[in-house]
Amino acid sequence: MKWKTKINHPLVLRIEGQLILIEGLFMLTVLPVTYLHHGLYAFSMPFSALITLLTGFILLIATRNHKNDKTTSRDGVYVVCISWLVLSLFGAIPFLLSKSVPNFTDGFFEALSGFTTTGATILTNIESVPKDILLWRSMTQWIGGLAIIVFSLAILPYLSMSGMQLFVSEINGITYDKLHPRVMHTVRRIWFIYLFFTLLETLLLYRGDMDFYDALCHSLSTISSGGFSTRTANIGAFSNYSQVVITVFMVLSGCNFSLLLLSLSWRSFTILKNQEFRTYLLYTVVLGIAIGLVLFFGCHKSFGSSFRESFFSVISAFTTTGFFVSDYTAWPTFLWVILFLLMFIGACSGSTSGGVKIFRHLIFTKNSVLELKRIIHPNAVLPVKVNGKAISTSGVYKHVTFIFVYFLVFLIGAVILLAMGIDIETALGASVATLSNVGTGLGQVGPGGSYVFFPLFAKWLLIFFMLLGRVELFSLITLLSRSFWRN
Fold this sequence. Notes:
Helix 2 (31-38) runs antiparallel to helix 7 and helix 13 runs antiparallel to helix 14. This protein has helices spanning 9-29, 31-38, 44-62, 73-91, 93-97, 104-115, 131-154, 161-171, 183-206, 212-223, 240-253, 257-266, 275-298, 303-318, 333-345, 358-376, 393-419, 424-435, 456-470, 473-480, 482-485, and strands at residues 384-386, 389-391. It is globular and about 70 Å long. With 487 residues, the chain is mostly helical. Strands 1-2 form a two-stranded antiparallel sheet. It is 65% helix and 1% strand. A hairpin with a 2-residue loop joins strand 1 and strand 2. The protein has a domain at 270-445.
């Protein structure tokens, strides 16, 4: 038995060099805010950008003679998994140099939380953090939501099969068919939609009570379903108008971007024909109305506040954005339990949200119902269908297994946190909030809470959970398995 990795290391290093270089360029875009608010002698962002750019250039120069040969999907899986770690390593530098966090673990936690669009934060008094650091913090979420994969594909046309692997990992798909004969053309158009929504939301928020800085930061965190805010009170610090605008764009962030592209390209209602999208809207409307009625009649809130808070909280949990306008843990228990379950499900496949995705939820639900029918009619052929297409038995097994493993990992994480002396509500909330990339959970990590009090080992466990949720369970599990490294 041979134990040769068969990883194309020069190719991987070249990809990482390009990603690091892109990250450094994004850091440069923060410098106007640095100099405007902190003067010419502020050094944390400029020095961070310098270190990042130099590292990227060095890697590119060192691999400049590399020829693209013998690339496999294994390289793609490897790149997807380690890219988040590499980007977070350099993304943590601004937090450390500005002394916004006290140590490397907290800085890496904050950066990875951004790039994985989790939104779990170490910070407690957010208003005291330098403005350029908060902008970078929101930008990590925007990059991590979708653009980092799109950018990597746009500059890596030579990646061949591995390039498609990167694309598929983010699309999570309803179908693995290419949307366009040239995948590069497709991802550029998806990036354009992503950018357009970001700019549109920024302008709409700027027309309200936010200044341009706050509007930009929250737009970056919304379309990426990230959840980082510039205020400790989160979106509750802003007007009803701003809350409604963010609610609308959270809904968009939970949609399948490839279906949005098809609908806009063909000027049709392709997305409305999709069963996953219809389920997404159905759950949102039904639960939003139901919780709003309970808040209105049971909690004696005003009619407007009841439904605004209800829909905002449902959509934030469903899309795993993690924004909040009020403390939903103060609501009747069964209401926040509903939000807790929505965090598990997540929004549509191909969106920037986390969770198991509605597509898998549909397969699991349909298969469970059909299993009961098969017991009654053992000879009947009852395939699981989504969007009118039958899912293969192996496909159903794969998705159902994913859900069971996902829930098992969540329970293991919660038990480990309990063993470290963390209360059960916080342990459950932190486990699902990091694994589903929500950020805001229950207990001490509920609305307005922070992860700063967690022990060192617990923080690294949650870092692992954030990465596990972002790259999909099986991708990272595959990378950690012995068979992956076997020749």
